Amino acid sequence: MPSRCVIGGCSNTHRDGVSLHIFPKDQARKKLWVKFVKLTRSDFSFQTHKRPLICSDHFSPESYVERLKYCDEGSQRVLSEVAVPSIKRGSDLEKKKERYVVQKREGLVIASGFSHDEASSSQQTPIYQNYDPEDTVCNKTVERYKNMTVTQQSKQTQTLQRRGNYSKACQSSIQSRSVGLQCDLIAAPPLQLFKSQEQNMVVDSDSISEMDDDSSTDSSSDLISVSDESCSAEGESYETVKEKYIVSRHKLLQLFASCEKCSGICAVDVERVVGTMVVIQAICCQCGYNRFLFSTYQRHQDKYLQPVIIASWVEQRAALLAERRGMPLTIGGDGRADSPGHSAKFGCYTIMDLKTNEIIDMKLIQKNEVTSSNHMELEGLKRGIDALLEEGIRIGELITDRHPSVTKWVRENLEPSGTKHFFDIWHIAKGLGKKIDSKAKLTDCGILQEWRRSIINHLYWSAGSSGGDGDMVEQKVMSLLRHIRNVHTGHGNLYMECQHAPLGDEEKRKKWIFPGQRAYDELESLFDNFRFKKDIRKLSPLDQTSGLEGFHSLLNHFAPKMLSSGTKEFSAGEFHKYNGGYVYSRMLLAVLHHNANSGRPQAKTKDGCLQYEILYPRGKMGQHTVRRVRSEPCYGESVKYKRFDLKNRSISDSLIFFTAYVKVLLQKVISEVDGSSTTSQGDLSLISSPPPTLSSRCERPDKELAIQELQSRFNS
Q1: Which of 555, 607, 542, 574 is CA-nearest to residue 690?
Q2: DSSP-assigned beta bridge partners for residue 151
Q3: What is the pLDDT of residue 66?
Q4: Cα–Cα dist 478/499, whole Å
Q5: Of the segments 210-214, 333-337, 595-599, which one has the largest average pLDDT value?
C-alpha cells in the first residue's frame, strides 16, 4: 500500500504528483511539525505511525530550495533546513493543479493531423479520434491506445495516461531534458511538431519501435524534426550546442540518402542495432551500389588506414633507433600468442627499452612459418634482434622470461659478443609460489604457507642486492634453508651471515622448520632442483619486464585475441596481408598509443598529494597491493612529460613535448584520401610477403562427396 500524507483530511500519495517529506531529525523543528499535524488530527503519535510523511501541498513555495536552472518541473523538490508545514487542508489550501501519472512502459504517440490549435483548445483528446482509415500505422495501433488519452502539460510535452490503472512497478515521474542540436547535415523539409516553450519530451522506446516496425513505405511518419530554437537551452550558444553528439534516427539516415557514385537516391534502412552500434544498409535505387559491403570496409582499411598506421610506426621506429644508435641498451623481450594453449595462429614478439619504457620493435609470426606454436616466440626474438643489429644498435643487457629455447639461442649467439642475459624475477617467483602452495597442501606441511610470502620477498631481495653476481645470488637464496631452522651464520664464503638485525623475543618464538620434518624436506627438494639453481644465477638485479606485461594488457583492448580465432575475414589471404594486415595494424596502433603515454607522471589530488590506490590481485589470494595512479592518457591533446635522458641515463628535468598520435594519424588519413600523400607505398616495402594460409597444405575435398562420407560415432 502506498505511503500517504498524515495530515487530517489529506490522503495524497506519490500517484497524485506530490512530494512526500519525512519528519526532520532536528528535535526543535520536529516538534513544530508534530504540533501542526495535531491541529488537524488529535490522535497522531509516532506509535501509530511508524514513518509519518507530509506532502508538499502543506508547504509554502518559500519552504523549498530554489530550483536549479535545468531541473524539470516534475523533479523531486527539496525542503530548506527551516521549512515548517503551514497550509491546512481547506479554504487556505491552494487549488490543486491537475497532475498526471506517466505510465511505465507507455510512450508518446502523435496523432496524424493533430494541429497546435486543436491541442490548445482541448486538455484531453482521445488519441484515436482523428485518424485516416487507410493509414496502416493508425489501424494497427488504434486498438492498443483506445483506453489512452493525450494529456498536454505544456505546448510541447505530451504524455499518455491510462484511465484508472497505475503501474505496480514504478510510480516515479520521468525526467528529461533537451539533448541539443540534431545537426542538419543534409537539407530536408522538417516535419511538423507542436511549438514549444519547454524542452522536455517524454518518449517511450517500446511504442516508437513498434511504430517503426509497422511502417512499410513512408519512413517519415515516425520521425520527429526539432528546430534549433527548441533544442537550444536558454543562455546556450550555438558553439556549445553543436558539439553534442546524440542524433535522431532520421537525421542519421539522411547521411546516406545520396549515392556517392551517381548521386542518386538510396534506399536506406537500419538493418540491426547491437548495443550502441547501428548497422545501416544503403543501396542506390539507380545504379544498385551498396555502400556498406564487407569488401568496402576491407578496401578502406587496406587503402587508407593500414598504410597510415604502418607509415606512422616506421617513422617513429626510425626516430627511436636513431637516438639510441651506438650506445648499449637494456632491452626486454616477451612474446604474446593470440590464444591460450598450443593452438595459436599468430604470435607477436615485443622488444622494449626498459630504461624509457618505450617499444622499439615488434614482430608478427604466423604458425606455419615455424614448426609449432611453441617456436613462434624464439622466431620473433631472432627477427627483432637481427633488425636491431642491422640498425647499429648495441645490446648491453637482454631480460626475458626463462624460455628454454630462448635461453639457448642467446647463450650461443649474443653472450659471446658481450650481451648479458637476465631473467625476470616475477616469472621465477610466480612458479616458486605455485610449487609452495602445492607442497603446503600435503600432510604436516601447512607451515610452508606461513613462510610463503617471506620466501618470495627473500628471492627478490637476493637478486636486487647482488648487482648481477650469480654466485652471490645463489648463496643468498640458498641461505634460506638455514634461516628457517634458526641458523643465521655460516651460509657460504661470499654470504656468510644474515643481514637482518638480531631477532627479538617474539621473533625467536616463530615457528621454525627443522631437518627431519616433512615440510623442510619438501622445501629443500624445491631449492635443490638443478634448473632452479641454474636460473636464479641469472635473476635481473634491477630492470624487469613488468612494462611488457602491462603493454600486453593494453594490447588486449586494441587487438583482442578473439579477432584471429578462425573468423571469416582472416581466412582470406588477400585481406590479411601478413605484417601489413588487420592484426599487425591493430598491434602497431597499440604501440603508438603506448609510446605516446609511456612517460605519464603520477597523478595528484587537488591538494597536490600523489595518488595511490589499493588493489587485490587474484594471484595474491586476498592480499592487497598498492599501486601508483598515473595521469590520464592522451589521445587528442598534446602533453609534456619528463623523459629518461639516454645519454646521462637518468630522468631529465626538462619537459619533452609529445604530439597526440591521434591527430597525426587523422592528418595522414586525410592526406591519403586527398591523394596528397605519397609515402605509404614506400613505407610498405618493409613488409614481407604474406605466408600461405594454414589450410594451404590441405587438399580440399569435394563437398558433396564429403557429406556422403559423413558418419557419426553415435546413434542418431
Answers
A1: 574
A2: 124, 159
A3: 66
A4: 14
A5: 333-337
Nearest to 380 by CA among 332, 335, 337, 424: 335
Query: How far is 641 from 254, CA to CA, in rounded Å?
Result: 44
Nearest residue to 224 (alpha-carbon basis) of 117, 140, 107: 107
Query: What pLDDT, in 10s, does the model give residues 35-55?
Result: 888 888 888 888 777 788 999
121 sits in which H/E element: helix 116-121
Residue range(s) in the chain whose domain bears CATH number 3.30.420.10: 307-423+543-597+633-686
- Which residues fall within 8 angstroms of residue 256, CB to CB, at 6 or more apart? 266, 268, 280, 282, 291
Name the grid cell of 296.
568496402
Cell (9 digits) for 633: 592518457
CA distances from 396 to 356, 552, 627 (A): 15, 24, 30
Q: What integer is the mean pLDDT of 554-580?
A: 55
* Confidence category of residue 118, pLDDT binned at 50, 70, 90: very low
Separation CA 43–CA 132 (nearest Å): 59
Helix (H) or strand (E) holding 284: strand 277-284
Confidence of residue 220 (pLDDT cuts 50, 70, 90): very low
SS3 653: strand
Longest dimension (CA), the chain: 104
Region at 95 (left for phi over 0; alpha for psi -120 to 50; beta for the rest): beta
Q: How many residues does the chain have?
A: 716
Cell of 582: 588487420
Residue with grid cell 629455447, as numbered in its chain:
405
Check residues 474 and 113 and name the one with the higher pLDDT.
Answer: 474
399 and 544 Cβ atoms separated by less than 8 Å: yes
Distance of CA 630 to CAs 173, 599, 604, Å?
41, 9, 9
Task: For strands 148-152 and 158-162, give the pairing.
Answer: antiparallel
> What pairs with residue 602 in β-bridges?
630
Strands 148-152 and 124-126, by their bridges, are antiparallel
Neighbours of 10 (CB within 10 A): 19
Q: Give the residues across from 274 on adjacent strands.
A: 277
Neighbours of 500 (CB within 10 A): 9
DSSP 303: I
113 residue type, one letter: G
Q: Mean pLDDT across the chain, nearest whole number?
A: 74
Task: Tell me what the mean pLDDT of segment 608-619 comes to.
Answer: 90
Grid coordinates of 656:
619533452
- Is 279 within 8 Å of 273 (Cβ atoms)? yes
Burial (0-12, 13-18, 19+ Cβ within 10 Å), 713: exposed
For residue range 312-339, list pLDDT tens digits in order. 899 999 999 999 998 899 999 999 988 7
Task: Kindly list the strands in the beta sheet with 420-423, ordered across the sheet, starting from the edge strand earlier in the chain.
Answer: 358-366, 346-353, 328-337, 394-400, 420-423
Q: Are 321 and 393 in contact (CB under 8 A)?
A: yes
Q: Determine the residue type at 165.
A: N
- Based on the number of CB atoms within 10 Å of its own CB, is 665 exposed (0-12), middle (13-18) or buried (19 or more)? middle
For residue 417, pLDDT over 90 is answered with yes
Architecture category of domain 307-423+543-597+633-686 in CATH: 2-Layer Sandwich (3.30)
d(CA 375, CA 561): 19
* Of 677, 707, 665, 684, nearest in space to 312 by CA: 665
Q: Which of 296, 271, 268 is nearest to 283 (CA)?
A: 268
